[in-house]
Structures are given as C-alpha cells and as structure tokens.
C-alpha cells in the first residue's frame, strides 16, 4: 500500500456496515496531539467505549495527560456526528477515564460537520491573510458552544500579535527543553516508508517539509530545525491568519478536558466545512510557567487556557495517517 492509498483507505466515505468498525474509523480521524492517536476502542452491543492508551503518553509536552483527554473528546465528537449520519443517536457519558457512548436508533441526520470529518486536517502553512466575514466568525464561535467551555475569539491584529509573542516565548522554551525535543523528534516521520510502518506520528510533508530518508533527515534536523527558524515560521503563520481562538474550560479535570476536545473538534470541522484551514499553536498552554500569564492576558481568571488555534484560508497539505480500526479496537 502506498502512502496515498493508506490515506484514502482511512478517509473513505462512511459505510453503514460494519457499523462499529466504521464509527471507530471516523472517530480516529479526529485531531490529536503529535498524531499519537492515544485511544483504545471497545464495542459491546450498542455501546462503544473510548479509553486512553497511556502507552502513547507524551510526558514531556503533556505531563498531566491533558492532551490525551482532549484528544479523546475530539474522537468522541467525530463518532457522535458519524453515528447520527448512519441513523444512531449517540449519548456520551464520562466514566472515570473512559467515554461510554450509547447508541439508539434514530432517523438519519446528515450534517456539514459530519461530511467534513474525512476532509479535515490541521495545516501548518502560511495562510493568505484574508479576514473572515462576520457570518463566518459567528458560525465558528457557535461550533465551539459546549457547557462549561469558553471560547475567546481574536481577529484584531494587535491581539493576534500578543498571542504571537506568547507562542514564540513558549516555542523558545520548548526548543531549549531537551526532553521535549527528544520526544518531539521521536514522533516525526520523515518519509512515507516511516509513516507507513507506524501509521501515526508527524509526517514531515504534512507540515510543509520535504520527505527525506531518515539517515539524511536526522542529521540535517539540527541544522534546519532551529529556534530562530521555527519562531520565524510561527510569526509568519500567525500574521497570515484571519484569527485565533482559545478554548478554556471552567475546571481543569478529565471531564472538562473531554468537553474541550468536543468543542475543539467541532471548531475544526466547521472551519473545514466553511473552506478554511486551521492549526494548533499550543505553546502558551503547554509551557506551565507561561500558562498563568497567558490566562491573565485573556481575562480567564483562574481558568486554564486549554487549546489555542489559528485559522484562515490556505493551501492543502498531505494528510496524516491513522491506524486502522483493527489496531485500536479491543474485541
């Protein structure tokens, strides 16, 4: 199987049968940190359970597993939307570390967000700088509506510039953190063969970088993947964006992190349905020392800023891979 064939297989149109496998396949197309795909699914009758796969933890960037549970919330939202398309009403309940989703028959309900699931991608590319219309901004904000989750939308250039300063400060801190850098590099897949071997990770061309043999890419990484170069890229990317949105839950626990993930995924799907691109710029929330300052700047009080995303109009890039359902389901 070639890389493109693997992408096409994971993102093929949703089928009614086999139901559980298809719903899991669409769930795995959700956004997740470093494309670690930190989830395990199990299905029993009309219940599908999503549990964390702690073997895929990233302790340097995500020491409290925040990103894992946000990722589970993203997957749950995809599954709920896909189930509705197939004629199943899905009710999620958080049970400890798990999300238990109960399915009940209902009239099929197609939606633009469900249709966007196989198309959505995070695009670390420079956008075209065009502003979003008030109607588009309204729909993006509405997509984030989730109990106990606030969305802070910024489109003014001065506000985006302030966020940029936090992103650059966070990026510099991370690039000076040896544990963070080792962890990040361990998830980079430098070429198609590497990506196909694991079906996960950060595929270099999906970030706008060339595909290179590992023996050449790893030594070159130290020359080209620099603090100065990455900060320059992030500055250009944010300057070219139509806006930035920050999601913050009322409390900092697994239940609320899952809720943030659901809102985050709907934002990405709504952006995709509107013809927009987006990507994460989470450095201000990943660097613990920086996070309280960022929260104060946003007027969040004691709340933790959970997710930061930029959006705008930009190009398609190669899509990342997902492990097939057989590798993420327990039977």
Secondary structure layout plus pairing:
Blueprint lengths: L2 H8 L8 H9 L11 E6 L2 E6 L13 H20 L2 E8 L2 E8 L6 H5 L17 H10 L5 E6 L2 H19 L2 H9 L1 E2 L2 H7 L3 E2 L10 H11 L2 H13 L3 E7 L4 H20 L3 E4 L2 H4 L4 H8 L6 E8 L12 H4 E2 L1
Parallel strand pairs: 1-11, 6-7
Antiparallel strand pairs: 1-2, 2-4, 3-4, 5-8, 8-10, 9-10
Helix pairs in contact: 2-3, 3-11, 5-11, 6-10
Structure summary:
This protein is α+β, with helices and mostly antiparallel strands. 44% of the residues lie in helices and 18% in strands.
Question: Taking all residues together, what is the mean pLDDT?
Answer: 96
Overall spatial form: globular
Write down the CATH class of the largest domain: Alpha Beta
The helix count comes to 14
Oligomeric state as shown = single chain
Q: In CATH, what is the homologous superfamily of the largest domain?
A: NADH Oxidase
- N- and C-termini, Cα separation: 25 Å
Helix/strand order? HHEEHEEHHEHHEHEHHEHEHHEHE
CATH architecture of the largest domain: 3-Layer(aba) Sandwich
Q: Uncertain segments of ≥5 residues (pLDDT<50)?
A: none
Total strands? 11
Helicity level: 40-55%
Radius of gyration (CA) equals 19 Å
Under CATH, the topology of the largest domain is which? NADH Oxidase
Largest sheet: 5 strands, mixed
Output the structural class.
alpha+beta
Task: Give the total of domains.
Answer: 2
């Amino acid at each position: 199987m070639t890389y493109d064939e693997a992408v096409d297989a994971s993102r093929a149109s949703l089928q009614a049968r086999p139901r559980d496998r298809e719903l899991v396949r669409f769930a795995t197309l959700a956004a997740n940190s470093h494309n670690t795909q930190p989830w395990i699914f199990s299905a029993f009758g009309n219940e599908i359970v999503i549990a964390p796969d702690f073997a895929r933890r990233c302790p340097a960037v995500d020491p409290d597993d925040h990103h894992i549970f946000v990722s589970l919330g993203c997957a749950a939202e995809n599954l709920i939307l896909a189930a509705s398309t197939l004629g199943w009403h899905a009710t999620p309940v958080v049970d400890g570390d798990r999300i238990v989703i109960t399915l009940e028959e209902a009239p099929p309900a197609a939606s633009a967000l469900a249709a966007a699931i196989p198309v959505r991608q995070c695009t670390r590319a420079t956008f075209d700088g065009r502003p979003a219309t008030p109607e588009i901004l309204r729909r993006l904000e509405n997509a984030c509506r989730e109990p106990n989750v606030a969305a802070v939308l910024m489109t003014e250039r001065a506000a985006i510039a302030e966020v940029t300063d936090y992103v650059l400060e966070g990026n510099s801190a991370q690039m000076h953190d040896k544990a963070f850098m080792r962890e990040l590099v361990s998830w980079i897949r430098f070429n198609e063969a590497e990506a196909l071997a694991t079906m996960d990770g950060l595929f270099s061309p999906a970030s706008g970088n060339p595909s290179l043999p590992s023996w050449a890419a790893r030594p070159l990484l130290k020359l080209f993947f620099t603090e100065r170069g990455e900060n320059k890229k992030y500055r250009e990317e944010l300057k070219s964006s139509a806006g930035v949105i920050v999601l913050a839950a009322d409390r900092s626990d697994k239940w609320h992190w899952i809720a943030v993930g659901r809102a985050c995924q709907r934002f990405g799907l709504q952006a995709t349905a509107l013809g927009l691109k987006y990507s994460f710029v989470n450095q201000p929330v990943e660097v613990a020392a920086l996070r309280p300052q960022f929260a104060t700047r946003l007027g969040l009080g004691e709340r933790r800023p959970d997710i930061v995303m930029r959006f705008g109009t930009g190009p398609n890039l190669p899509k990342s891979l997902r492990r097939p359902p057989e590798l993420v389901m327990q039977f």
